[in-house]
Design brief:
- By secondary structure, the chain is of the alpha/beta class.
- Helices cover 44% and strands 17% of the residues.
- The two termini are 30 Å apart.
- Zinc ion binds next to loops.
Length: 333
């Protein structure tokens, strides 16, 4: 048994409380590699932001859970080395799909887990989330649960259609499960191809996706005042990165994300955690493709991973400062 507190990590409770009260959101960046971890830590330290480093089931399969936990431990020490005396770093399981997986992560140093029973019938979702919460809270690990289904594809999580969260269910669900935060579905979507061009409107030559259902968000906020809300699938899929990828030999068609203005608006509400994964993948791939195209003789991974890391760091800082507003929000700097 490894307790996250021994690794210098924190759970989400205090940072969410401050984020909801302060009208900003904490970034939740997925990571699979050392370079992503370094870029996340450098960005968080430079902006003095709390940060959630999250691991999907796919990341555990790719990189191994023990290695990822030690990367998170290294992240805390690295942040201190970079001059941040009191970093607030959460190691979070993204889309846990069973009690067993959540328990394994809690027993192995995670400070927060998501149990995603959103595809189950309502009562089964309640029962599963409640079971995870009861186990997690013994160790002061916080739990995110989900109501409503997001469309899109993210690692092993995929759904053809979205089902908006029903505001009339949220009080019953949060009370009976005891969850610490709630992921909702209001029109965000997983992956880099969130919408088909047919679903979008053409504005000044740019495809703009349908707006998020802010009416549902506000109704949920009214029912659960001050309760932490989470948005998944919130990459904005910057055209600049997509164009770089396509310019240097890639082939990404109709990649469309969530406009940043809408995420900025959501951050000001009870939404206190915004998940961003695809944008980091795009930033990394764009920088690597560009570097290799311009330096065909390079074969040392450090030569192309360094600009990839720089590009991700730039993207993370941009999100923190210009979209989520979590810069300067550490409890102690
Ligand atoms: Zn998700």
């Amino acid at each position: 048994m490894v307790n996250y507190k021994d690794l210098g990590l924190v759970n989400t409770r205090e940072m969410f409380k401050r984020a909801v009260a302060g009208g900003y959101a904490i970034p939740a960046f997925n990571f699979n590699t050392m370079e992503q971890m370094q870029a996340i830590v450098m960005a968080a330290v430079e902006t003095k932001s709390p940060v959630i480093m999250q691991v999907s089931k796919g990341a555990r399969n790719y990189a191994n859970g023990t290695i990822l936990r030690n990367l998170a431990k290294g992240a805390v020490e690295y942040a201190k080395e970079l001059g941040c005396e009191h970093p607030e770093i959460v190691l979070h399981l993204d889309h846990g799909d069973s009690f067993e997986l959540c328990k394994e992560c809690i027993d192995n140093g995670f400070s927060s887990v998501m149990i995603d029973g959103s595809s189950l019938p309502y009562e089964e979702n309640v029962a599963l989330a409640k079971k995870v919460v009861e186990y997690a809270h013994q160790f002061d690990v916080t739990v995110e649960a989900e109501l409503g289904v997001l469309a899109g594809v993210e690692d092993e999580v995929s759904s053809a259609e979205s089902h908006y969260t029903k505001p009339e269910e949220v009080i019953d669900f949060s009370t009976r499960t005891g969850c610490d935060s709630l992921a909702i579905s209001i029109g965000t979507s997983h992956g880099a191809h969130k919408f088909t061009p047919e679903q979008c409107t053409l504005v000044n030559g740019v495809l703009v996706p349908p707006p998020l259902a802010f009416d549902i968000l506000h109704e949920i906020e009214k029912k659960l005042p001050g309760f932490p809300i989470v948005l998944h699938g919130s990459s904005s899929v910057p055209m600049e990165e997509v164009n770089t990828i396509n310019k240097y030999g890639g082939h990404l068609e109709a990649a469309i994300g969530i406009p940043e203005e809408q995420l900025r608006e959501a951050s000001k509400s009870a939404v206190c955690k915004i998940n961003i994964d695809s944008d980091s993948r795009l930033a990394m791939t764009a920088a690597i493709r560009k570097h290799l195209a311009e330096h065909p003789g390079d074969f040392d991974p450090r030569q192309y991973l360094k600009p990839a890391r720089e590009n991700m760091k730039k993207m993370y800082i941009h999100k923190i400062v210009n979209v989520l507003g979590s810069d300067g929000k550490l409890a102690q700097c």
